[in-house]
Amino acid sequence: MYEKQTFEVILERMLARVPNNVDKREGSIIYDALAPAAAELAMSYIEMDVILNETFADTATREYLIKRTAERGINPYPATKALLKGVFKNREGNLLDIPIGSRFSLDDLNYVAVEKIEKGQYKMECETAGSIGNKYFGSIIPIEYIQHLATGELIEILIPGEDEEETESLRQRYFNSLESEAFGGNIADYKEKINKIQGVGGVKVYPVWNGGGTVKLVIIDSEYKMPSTSLISTVQTIIDPINNSGQGVGIAPIGHKVTVEGVSETLTTITTNITFQDGYVWEDIKPYVEDKINEYYNDLAKEWAGSSNLVVRISQIEVRLLDVTGILDIQDTSINGVQQNLVLDANSIPKLDVITA
């Protein structure tokens, strides 16, 4: 709005107010007196433009967007800590119990045993908040001596850790709150409450799916993968515990019998005909091809919650694989033996099984 109010424009306008019988040339007394004032006014216009942008949610930077969204009770989701399964054994290879609170390290991260699952298996919480806690598996080393312990290993993610909510996600949540009001167990209310739970990356809500008062929630984890049974159980307990279903013990309204399920995975076998660049063979580029397809599948999974059905498109596979160094051309691509796009079930995401070329 104020971008046209430059130093030159302001100074010219100020000089125009001075009578023409007065010397207004650069270096004159009048010019030298007005130029500093024009510079300050130009700076003021710049600041006013910044203030104007920070006033509205669609142009505000993160600091001021948080102030705006807070007016509607919407705050950025904080970073959370990953929860993983740890398995511990003694020298004989038998499962070994360890003290709750035992701390272990893996690379630059530390983990603490917070809950026993069963003999020799524990829920291990990463001490560093964020998605970094989802990235490492394998042998862990005790920070303090534990008697009879020979090996410890992190084997799977139970509840993914999440980074602090990104600015654009927060902005979109704010606008969504203006379009649909969350109230007393309506669809918007369920989505709002489910997405706040640690480890959940998205949800589809199916009201009256099995008769009056029934609600089915299908979730995907925050890594956009099939959720663990631990995460599904956690969400079920928070929303509507199975033993007290429909009684309002959880955050679901009284009378709502809620069933929580996880998104399923559809295995895909991809066959294609690749023309290689000189000096390249399939074994050289296969890992990069798999990475490209997994990246595409992850992009699709991010859209799952907002789509009716995901579609794995052959054109997208071929376009992305052409970016792989060593591939000159690609054709005759098929998915699960058919040369056409694969339409997934409403509650399914794709997973790469085998690729051959």
Automatic annotation (TrEMBL):
User: Which residue numbers delimit the Baseplate J-like central domain?
Assistant: 182-261
Residues crossing the lipid bilayer are none
Ranges of residues in domain Baseplate J-like C-terminal: 269-356
Which InterPro entries would you find in this protein's record? Answer: Baseplate_J-like_C, Baseplate_J_M, Phage_Baseplate_Assmbl_Protein
Among PANTHER family, the record links this protein to: PHAGE-LIKE ELEMENT PBSX PROTEIN XKDT (PTHR37829), PROTEIN JAYE-RELATED (PTHR37829:SF3)
User: What does the sequence similarity comment in the record state about its family?
Assistant: Belongs to the Mu gp47/PBSX XkdT family.
Q: Protein name, please?
A: Baseplate J/gp47 family protein
Native source organism of the sequence:
Alkaliphilus flagellatus
